[in-house]
Specification:
single chain, Nucleotidyltransferase, domain 5, 5-stranded mixed sheet, 21% strand
């Protein structure tokens, strides 16, 4: 039997899954609504997905929110799904599936997808910045994903954008750089029937309607400043921008413009920090499926 894997992406609204081969080819895929009312209904849905494939697969790869332990199995905090806190997924699925189960943080999975088959392939030093509810991602140094001493490298959401704010979390990049908040802010001000309608919001942005255009420009200035701050520490060659809004070409175009403006306005920065490339990530909605599988393959190869 050919080697097959089940890759699962646990999100706040949906659990995506795919049957994949070792080269990253998606053979089948689907999605189920994520139960948000507790661990028991959540595990019931996940177990049902596993049951569909358990006789056809050699292993299970999972991308999950929250900090993932060094065991690549235990979820801490759980992000938008706090009931996942403390869940050892390998153990939780042991009675159902006796093969390997490997869990990766969702932001790091997005970075690994780009490193494996995307726009960081062949890049020795790079980073992925994923714009969503918060800001996830990962840093690639020496061709490897950086985990750090406590598995938390690349948690860009917790970088401060305003050191004088007494409530740190209000000034954290995950709040000020939230793509979901950007869309909802513009949608509310434009009095859209659905303030969270991203397509309608980007129609306003693309036509440079006010105040949408000014709010969007301020947002991209914050993201450019975040990238510059990361660059000052890790000095990489390329940043890939992921997340749902990155599908809009104007996002990366305006981040590049804002980054260039930062340099032109600050000669000392321009002369000190070499400008990295800032490009759109290759993978959009399926990024974590690819990245989870690559994390699995790397873990099993240790």
């Amino acid at each position: 039997m050919a080697t097959r894997y089940l890759s699962v992406d646990i999100g706040g609204s949906s659990i995506k899954y795919a049957l994949m081969d070792g080269a990253g080819l998606i053979l089948e895929k689907g999605a189920e609504e994520t139960p948000t009312n507790g661990l028991t209904p959540f595990m019931a849905v996940l177990s049902e997905i596993v049951a569909r494939y358990q006789d056809r697969i050699n292993g299970i790869a999972v991308a999950a929110p929250g900090k993932i332990g060094a065991d690549h199995s235990t979820i801490h905090f759980g992000g938008a799904l706090p009931f996942l806190d403390g869940l050892d997924l390998r153990q939780a699925l042991a009675n159902q599936f006796d093969g390997p189960v490997v869990v990766e943080n969702d932001g790091k999975a997005a970075a690994l997808a780009e490193l494996w088959l995307g726009n960081l392939k062949g890049i020795e030093n790079g980073a992925a910045v994923v714009l969503g509810t918060g800001i996830g991602g990962g840093v690639i140094l020496g061709g490897r994903l950086l985990y750090g001493s406590h598995q938390q490298a690349g948690e860009f959401s917790f970088m401060s954008s305003h050191y004088d704010e007494p409530q740190f979390i209000k000034a954290a990049a995950g709040s000020t750089g939230s793509a979901v908040r950007l869309v909802r802010t513009i949608g509310t001000m434009a009095q859209l029937a659905d303030p969270g309608d991203g397509h309608a919001v980007f129609e306003l942005i693309s036509s440079k309607k006010e105040p949408a255009w000014t709010i969007f420009k301020q947002y991209t200035q914050r993201i450019a400043a975040l990238i510059l701050s990361i660059q000052a520490v890790v000095d990489v060659d390329r940043y890939v921008i992921g997340g749902g809004i990155s599908a809009q070409p104007i996002v990366v175009k305006q981040i590049n413009q804002a980054y260039s403006d930062l340099l032109s306005e600050n000669e000392i920065i321009e002369k000190t920090l070499t400008r990295p490339e800032i490009v759109t990530a290759k993978f959009q909605n399926d990024a974590n499926l690819y990245g989870a599988l690559y994390s699995y393959l790397l873990f099993m190869d240790k």
